[in-house]
From TrEMBL:
It comes from Actinopolymorpha singaporensis. This is Uncharacterized conserved protein, contains Zn finger domain. InterPro entries: DUF6880, Znf_SWIM. Residues 112-123 have a biased composition (Low complexity). One of its GO terms (molecular function) is zinc ion binding.
Length: 593
């Protein structure tokens, strides 16, 4: 039997720093609901991008959690688990004793592990110190306590604001956001430029500053959080062109600030018309897709009046767009059109969205989007009308044919579907196009298409000869034919096709390994030639690959009784490439003579 209790250090030990902080934000924002305690276990629902179900168990090994969010499904103690644990800790039923909990199987990640005992000890120690301090404070004179509290509040704007609200000041006026504005400005300052190596640390600093803003909503100051989140978005856009965003940190920071803004709006009652004007104007002038998904995200916050104003502004911007020029990308057009599409889809479904999409059809892709939406709504006949128009009015597009074939199958016309998929294959032969045709035609009907398809593939130009080890010729050549025959499990036919027309190196290797048991000599030739090509690249990684290929070939040589000749080849290879020290080292590591 082990006596432990749930504690905040135990929660910290179970989660990674990012999940811990996000979980605190979720808890403070009041996202945990339906908390149910059952002895040493608790269940809850946490509202994130959707409602997630959480289950926590207190065991002698620590705190274990399960959540059906993507991160939790991989076995991690996610932010939803953290939020639920903090809500449990704050409930009347915590801390809980686990003295009767039997030792369970330790999960991959969900246990606080060895830190559980230390966490319980730390919690007990802190609880004792808190009691002593509380008893001390209760014995002090009120003027001294007031002076101490004012001194601390002078350095903590959030504490001061909470005290002022308790004293009767309106929450919207109590919080002085100047220090947090300055904090954001410092965190977002890029100097001259933030390069790739510095970007990770930069965005961690940004996230820390945004976390401070997020806390305001849970502390009762959502109006301040909303204004500061909007200010953070302004700062982000002002510095975006001076940051190397190869890893997507900018997008993550924008989404974080948007999330804070939405949470703050949901926790307060901003004027819906003014909010609609802010969201529409901000999205339409943004070059970084800020508030691009305001609909449907803000629908419940905006209400009927706000949505009416939002629709008015978006429609005005959309109707004011000039005539579209083919092949020309326009950020303003993209944003206004995207917002209009989201609005139409949210309020009017497929018909409204198709009406928006069909206003400005200038390419096969525009037709494809309309047809896809109709297909998704099982309106196959209407989708086919659009697809036939697209195939007639624009350059042939395999995506249109593929979707049209799918719709024809749905309406019972497999013959027409096969003709469209044959056109795709004939225009651009590939294994994928071959499989698509085979799948629709079925085994019996496919016989006539197969002969035609293989004929097309055999007529493709052969690859050039690149080595002195026939039949190893490389290049694209008959690669597609080889792929098709391998897919059909005709290994010997694929080898003959490769020998006649050449193929990519990786296909030669696949063929060699597939035939190694029955034809080791052929496999050795291919492996040697592939190793020579790697050596030609003259870098350590390629030398490592070459050594692996040669070791594989030597095993085959030993099996078929020609090891002496192969080792002679290796000796010649070392002599020829004697200056290449890195190659010699890789050959040695592979155990080659």
């Amino acid at each position: 039997m082990v006596a432990i209790s749930v504690s905040e250090p135990m929660v910290s030990a179970a989660a990674d720093p990012g999940s811990l902080q996000r979980g605190r934000d979720y808890y403070l924002a009041g996202r945990v609901r339906e908390l149910r305690v059952d002895g040493s276990a608790v269940s809850a629902i946490v509202d994130g991008g959707r409602a997630y179900r959480v289950r926590l168990d207190l065991t002698p090994l620590g705190l274990e959690g399960r959540c059906n969010c993507p991160y939790g499904a991989e076995g991690f103690f996610c932010k939803h688990c953290v939020a639920s644990a903090l809500a449990w800790l704050d409930s009347a039923d915590a801390p809980l004793e686990a003295s009767t909990v039997s030792k369970g199987k330790r999960g991959r990640n969900k246990s606080a592990g060895k830190a559980a005992g230390k966490g319980a000890s730390d919690a007990t120690s802190r609880s004792g110190r808190d009691r002593r301090l509380r008893n001390f404070l209760l014995r002090q004179e009120i003027p001294w306590l007031v002076a101490e509290l004012l001194r601390v509040a002078g350095d903590d704007p959030l504490l001061r604001a909470r005290l002022e609200v308790a004293a009767g000041v309106d929450a919207g006026e109590a919080f002085d956001d100047r220090h947090l504005r300055s904090r954001l400005e410092q965190a977002f300052d890029v100097g001259y430029f933030v390069d790739y190596r510095e970007a990770g640390a930069y965005f961690r600093g940004v996230d820390e500053a945004l976390t401070e803003v997020a806390k305001l909503t849970g502390e009762g100051f959502p109006d301040a959080a909303r204004e500061l989140a909007a200010y953070a978005l302004d700062l982000l856009e002002s510095v975006a062109d001076r940051i190397d965003d190869s890893d997507g940190g900018l997008r993550g920071a924008i989404e974080r600030a948007e999330e804070i803004h939405l949470d703050a709006c949901s926790a307060s009652a901003p004027d819906p018309v003014r909010l609609a004007e802010f969201l529409a104007e901000r999205a339409l002038r943004s070059e970084y897709e800020v508030f691009l998904t305001a609909v449907p995200d803000y629908v419940s916050v905006l209400g009927p009046a706000g949505m009416a104003r939002y629709r008015e502004l978006v429609e005005h911007a959309w109707n004011a767009l000039p005539a579209r020029r083919s092949g020309h990308y326009d950020t303003c057009r993209f944003t206004a059109t995207f917002l209009m599409e989201r609005l139409a889809e949210c309020e009017g479904g497929t018909d409204a969205l198709v009406e928006v999409l069909s206003r400005d059809v200038a390419s096969a892709y525009d037709v494809l989007r309309i047809a896809q939406r109709l297909r998704d709504d099982s309106r196959y006949a209407e989708a086919l009308e659009w697809l036939e128009r697209g195939l007639s009015d624009f350059q042939p597009d395999p995506r249109l044919r593929t979707l049209a074939a799918e719709c024809h199958v749905r309406t019972g016309d497999r013959g027409k579907a096969q003709e469209l998929l044959w056109d795709n294959f004939a225009e651009s032969p590939s294994l994928e196009a071959y499989i698509a045709l085979r799948k629709v035609a079925g085994k019996k009907a496919f016989a006539r298409w197969r002969d035609r398809a293989l004929g097309v593939l055999r007529d493709q130009p052969a690859a050039g000869q690149r080595t002195d080890l026939p039949p190893f010729s490389i290049g694209y050549g008959h690669s597609t034919l080889v792929e098709v025959l391998l897919w059909e499990r005709d290994v010997d036919g694929a080898w003959a096709a490769a020998a006649a027309g050449g193929c990519r190196v990786e296909l030669w290797l696949q063929l060699a390994r597939a035939r190694a048991d029955a034809h080791p000599d052929d496999a050795i030739v291919v492996l040697r030639a592939a190793a020579d090509l790697e050596i030609e690249k003259k870098d350590r990684r390629s030398y490592h690959q070459a050594a692996g290929l040669l070791a594989e070939a030597r095993t085959l040589a030993q099996r078929c009784g020609c090891l002496k000749g192969f080792d002679a080849h290796l000796l010649d290879l070392r002599t020829t490439h004697k200056p290449k020290r890195a190659l010699r080292e890789e050959l040695d590591r592979a155990g080659l003579p």
